[in-house]
Structures are given as C-alpha cells and as structure tokens.
Amino acid sequence: MTLSPSDIPNSTTPVVEFKEVCRAFSGHVALSNLSFQVKKGEIMGIIGRSGAGKTTLLRCLAGLEKPDTGEVRIEGKNIANLPRKELLPLQQRIGLVFQHFNLLSAKTVIDNIILPLKISGLYAGKHHERAKELLELVGLPDKANDYPAQLSGGQKQRVGIARALAANPALLLCDEATSALDPETTRSIIDLLLQINKQLKLTIVLITHEMSVVRLLADRVIVLNKGQIAEEGHVTQIFSHPKTDITKQLLTEERPTLPDSITRLLHSDPLPNDYAILHVIMLGTVVRKPLIADLQKDYNISASLLEGSISHIRETPIGTSFLAVPADDCNKTIDALNDMGVESVESLGYVSL
Ligand SMILES: Nc1ncnc2c1ncn2[C@@H]1O[C@H](COP(=O)(O)OP(=O)(O)OP(=O)(O)O)[C@@H](O)[C@H]1O
C-alpha cells in the first residue's frame, strides 16, 4: 500500500475524520457532504431521529459501507476506498460493541474474547493471559468459563466490551450499546466505558437514541438530520442550550418544560398585577444555591417556583427552573440572577396568575 503524506499519523492527527462524505441508496441520500473529526481520547455521541443516517455513518466508519464520495480517515489513513485486504488490518484498530452483544453462545466467555485475538497477530501463548486481563478490566474475573446464557444482560455487554478491546483498538464504536439494558445496568455500563476511556485514553464513538446516555457519557455531540450535521458541540452546550428545533425535539424528555396550563396563558405585554415567567438555567455549583431565598433576602423580590429539576451533564450539575416574579420586578430579577452566576435567564412572557 502506498502512503500519501496525509496518511502518516502524528500526535495531532484525529482518530476519526470524515471529509465531505456522501452516501446514497438508489438515489435516497443517507449522508450528505458530512465532515467532522474526533480527537484521541474523546467520546463523541451521535444522535438523530430514525433515518437521520447514524447507522450509515457508523458502517462507513467501521469500513462496512463505502461512501460514494469523500474520505473516511482512521488515524489519518483513508479507509473509504481500500481493497478488502488492506482494509482488514485497519478494521482491527476498531472495536465494535453491539446492542444485542453478538456473543457466540456455544463458546465460553473466555473463548469469545480469545476469538478476535486469534486474528490479531498476538502470539498464541499470550491469548489466555490477555483475555484474563480484559475480564479483570470489565469486572468479570470469575466468569471466564461460563457460557453467555449463564450471564445477565449487563454481564454479556461487559464481555462484548472485553472482546471489542481485545486487539487494543484505537477506536471503540458503540451501536446502541445500552439500549437492551435496564436503567441500573445501563448506568454501570456507562461507568465502565468512562473508566476505560480514562484508563486507556480510548476514543469512543457512540450512536444511541437514549439521550440520558449521551448526557452522561459524551464529551461532544453531533446531531444528525437528513445525513447532515444539524448541530455539533460540547455536551454541556448542546444539552443546556440546544440551538436547532431538531435538537430541542430530541432532548424534549431531558429538558423540563413549563406546564401547558401556564404556557397557554403567556402573553407578551404585561397587564397590571401580572407575573413575569423566567426560564433559568444553572450549571455547576450555582445549582446548590438557595436562589429563591437569596432573591427575597438580598433583593426583596418574591419569586415562586413553577417547575424545576436538577440532573447531570457528565459530572456537571445542571438545574433548570421556571420562576414567576411580579412583572415590575422582571428586569431587576434578571440582573440579580445574573449577579448570582446563573448560566442563562430568559423572560418567556407574562401571565395573570
Ligand atoms: N442498505 C440500504 N438500502 C436502502 N436504503 C438505505 C440503506 N441503508 C440506509 N438506507 C436509508 O438511508 C437513510 C439513513 O438510514 P440509517 O439506517 O443510516 O439511519 P439511522 O439514523 O441509523 O436510523 P435508525 O435510528 O432508525 O436506525 C434512511 O432513509 C434509510 O432508509
């Protein structure tokens, strides 16, 4: 294989790079001029409605699908149009984790993990030791001789992750890796992937329809729509201030909204004795401040909480609340909340409560 100068990786070469990738099926566009990069050690979440192009993107990334035009670079090497023989060693740099685990039921846990080692080029005498190391890493040191049918869903996925890591990949691709698991098990798999990312500095790309998984796992997020990037950014930015309607729709269940009964009453010009409705977003330690008590104590403003919630984006707490304050105090409250260090505060209009 002849390498062009851009095929030779250096420390700043992204692990993944899509350059103007297009893919259509019988004239139906799945990916349209798609360009993005994923840096070493980064966790990238890809979200989008059904049919947005997520699977096609992942298949192009894994070398299972060839783009019509454009480049797909893994560690600087364009895999888009490589013949099969040259593609295989590059595919070994990619570990795949599937929704339904795809373990071989007739083989024990350790043999499932040894399977990819057999084609990895690792000296056969080391296979057992390496598989044991991986079982330790994923927290299943005692399950080596069990069969997949004897494991819970979460344990099967741990084996799936160990198998994906067997050949020391540069990139882990997770295709709906937690979608078949209950919330508690999902959380434990998220923690495992975070631990592996930190410990091995492993780059991870995940596609999922579970927004809470992206919120807790991803560093950056790409929102796909009709094969194009609708929005891309840091997970905190995307979840706290989604810009496009498509992102807002995808995150509906993640973002508290004003109750319909109040939304219906909103108007833009205040009447006497009206209340202003404020949408407040707090990030980090501000979330723990007693904002309503402080508004009363330090600014003599009486604010009522209409709706509110606290969750986490990665380790950062995010608080969202909807407050009602007397309309005359609206601007004063916005200034006070900004002084208190909230992330954003926006007046949604007025209601007569
Ligand atoms: N092999 C194929 N033949 C024909 N059309 C295809 C093929 N694969 C994908 N498509 C079409 O390309 C578009 C993108 O599909 P893709 O499966 O990538 O979307 P997705 O975001 O993964 O959807 P989902 O979340 O439902 O899995 C869809 O309109 C789909 O019908």
Any chance you could write out the topology, listing elements then pairs?
Layout: E1 16-25, E2 28-38, E3 43-48, H1 54-61, E4 69-74, E5 77-78, H2 84-91, E6 94-97, H3 109-118, H4 127-137, H5 153-165, E7 171-175, H6 183-200, E8 203-207, H7 211-217, E9 220-225, E10 228-234, H8 235-240, H9 245-250, H10 260-263, E11 275-283, H11 291-299, E12 304-313, E13 316-326, H12 330-340, E14 344-351
Parallel strand pairs: 3-8, 3-9, 6-7, 7-8
Antiparallel strand pairs: 1-2, 1-4, 4-5, 9-10, 11-13, 11-14, 12-13
Adenosine-5'-triphosphate binds next to strand 2 and helix 1.
| Count of strand segments | 14
- Mean pLDDT across the residues is 93
Strand content: 25-35%
Profile the largest sheet: 6 strands, mixed
Q: How would you classify the helix and strand content by structural class?
A: alpha/beta
Number of helices: 12
Please tell me the total number of domains: 2
Q: Can you write the helix and strand succession as a string? A: EEEHEEHEHHHEHEHEEHHHEHEEHE
Short account of what is shown:
The protein is an alpha/beta fold. The protein is built from twelve helices and 14 strands.
Written overview of the protein:
- This protein has 353 residues and is α/β, with parallel strands linked by helices.
- It contains twelve helices and 14 strands.
- Helices cover 31% and strands 28% of the residues.
- It has helices spanning 54-61, 84-91, 109-118, 127-137, 153-165, 183-200, 211-217, 235-240, 245-250, 260-263, 291-299, 330-340; strands at 16-25, 28-38, 43-48, 69-74, 77-78, 94-97, 171-175, 203-207, 220-225, 228-234, 275-283, 304-313, 316-326, 344-351.
- Helix 4 (127-137) packs across helix 5 and helix 5 packs parallel to helix 6 (183-200).
- It folds into two domains: 5-93 and 169-253, Rossmann fold (3-Layer(aba) Sandwich); 260-351, 2-Layer Sandwich (Alpha-Beta Plaits), CATH 3.30.70.
- The model has no long low-confidence stretch (mean pLDDT 93).
- It binds adenosine-5'-triphosphate (ATP).
- The site of adenosine-5'-triphosphate has 11 residues, from strand 2 and helix 1.
